[in-house]
């Protein structure tokens, strides 16, 4: 298994004086730079396309371990006003991140049929750690949105690495669980025969199996379902990632719907950075709302990240039970991450 201990000895790419210069330089630069880490991948490419179309982005930084020149050249011909820059390989990671206001990370391995998300930990822990360490050097005040699985464990790993680098601000770190909300809205709209955009539903907990908890009791419009119908709908939402993995039959997991979900989440961060009020998203963040240290719930976003972790939505008895049933798994997955960084 990859040793996180070794990681700590990877030298900081930017010396202190360079960092100070960079921070000053970023301060006088205008606009919002968004860095996509893993930009050449199945999620990274369509996500980068959607961000190129977002008028709130002024600079789009595309980084991957493989060459991103072609993707950047291609996107740069789209007639929207943001600039697109290509970065790849270890040496260019710091450059990709410098002055970024938002760093969104779809880097890492996806599942194959028969795998659990937790089985991606060995492959993806190092990716997340490398990015976290580089962020602490290059853009410590950026908002960080991690898509990489297993989200339940990756986010605690990133928090631990940032703590070691003295750069952890819980308000700025997010695990992206937006796809769970997107799916819940879609499946409920299908049942009700209405526009998915008219559905509002919180999805709390984490992003794996039973830790994904859609609160059907809080759905707007109201759902009139019996217990069996509710259980079926909850399972459909919880297993939706696996549904895509099976359908892709070895060619990866959700990419296009994830790109849509991440573009929506990043747009909310951008709106909050621009001081738009009342921007609320469900995300997996450090939390004291449950017995788990990291927990997905609705958060109020502001220019500095999380302005307020909103109270847990109300739950019916079945949802309370599902919450109790999932906490053990969620806590174990969090602990796995903390242990990995410590050992
Ligand atoms: N949070 C969520 O709801 C979802 C999360 N995911 C996760 O997103 C991740 C990416 O999925 P896909 O885009 O389908 O995979 P992919 O394999 O198509 O793309 C991953 C990209 O990451 C790059 N990469 C790997 N290591 C890197 C490093 N150290 N630095 C920079 N780039 C690196 C690869 O070169 C590749 O271009 C997976 O872990 C997957 O499980 C996928 C769907 C939903
Ligand atoms: O299922 C996977 O491995 C990818 C993912 O997290 C999702 O689609 O929700």
UniProtKB/TrEMBL annotation:
Residue ranges of domain Lactate/malate dehydrogenase C-terminal in the record: 177-339
Pfam families membership: Ldh_1_C, Ldh_1_N
Residue span(s) of domain Lactate/malate dehydrogenase N-terminal: 32-175
GO MF term (any one): L-malate dehydrogenase (NAD+) activity
GO BP, one annotated term: malate metabolic process
Entry binding sites for NAD(+): 38-44, 64, 124, 147-149, 258
Active site residues according to the UniProt entry: 207
Catalytic activity of the protein: (S)-malate + NAD(+) = oxaloacetate + NADH + H(+)
Gene Ontology CC terms, in alphabetical order: mitochondrion
EC number: 1.1.1.37
Binding site for substrate: 111, 117, 149, 183
Keyword Acetylation: no
Subunit structure: Homodimer.
UniProt-recorded name of the protein: Malate dehydrogenase
């Amino acid at each position: 298994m990859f040793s996180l201990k070794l990681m700590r000895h990877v030298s900081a790419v930017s010396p202190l004086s360079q960092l100070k210069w960079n921070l000053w330089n970023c301060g006088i630069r205008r606009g919002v730079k968004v860095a996509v880490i893993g930009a050449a991948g199945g999620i990274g490419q369509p996500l980068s396309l959607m961000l190129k179309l977002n008028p709130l982005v002024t600079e789009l930084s595309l980084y991957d371990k493989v060459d991103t020149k072609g993707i950047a050249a291609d996107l740069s011909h789209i007639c929207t006003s943001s600039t697109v820059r290509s970065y790849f390989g270890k040496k260019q990671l710091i450059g990709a991140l410098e002055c970024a206001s938002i760093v969104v990370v779809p880097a890492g391995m996806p599942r194959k049929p028969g795998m659990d998300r937790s089985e991606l930990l060995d492959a993806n822990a190092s990716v997340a750690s490398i990015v976290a360490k580089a962020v602490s050097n290059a853009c410590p005040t950026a908002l960080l949105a991690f898509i990489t699985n297993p989200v339940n464990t990756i986010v605690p790993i990133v928090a631990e690495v940032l703590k070691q680098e003295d750069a952890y601000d819980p308000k700025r770190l997010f695990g992206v669980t937006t796809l769970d909300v997107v799916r819940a809205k879609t499946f409920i709209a299908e049942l009700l025969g209405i526009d998915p955009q008219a559905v509002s539903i919180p999805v709390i907990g984490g992003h794996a199996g039973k830790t994904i908890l859609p609160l059907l009791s809080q759905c707007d419009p109201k759902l009139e379902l019996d217990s069996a119908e509710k259980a079926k709908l909850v399972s459909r939402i919880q297993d939706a990632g696996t549904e895509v993995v099976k359908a892709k039959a070895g060619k990866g997991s959700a990419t296009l719907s994830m790109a849509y979900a991440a573009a929506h989440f990043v747009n909310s961060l951008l709106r909050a950075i621009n001081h738009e009020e009342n921007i609320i998203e469900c995300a997996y963040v450090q939390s004291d709302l449950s017995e788990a240290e990291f927990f997905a719930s609705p958060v109020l976003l502001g220019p500095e990240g999380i302005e307020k972790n909103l109270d847990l939505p109300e739950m019916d008895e079945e949802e309370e039970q599902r919450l109790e049933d999932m906490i053990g798994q969620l806590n174990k997955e969090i602990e796995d991450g903390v242990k990995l960084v410590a050992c």
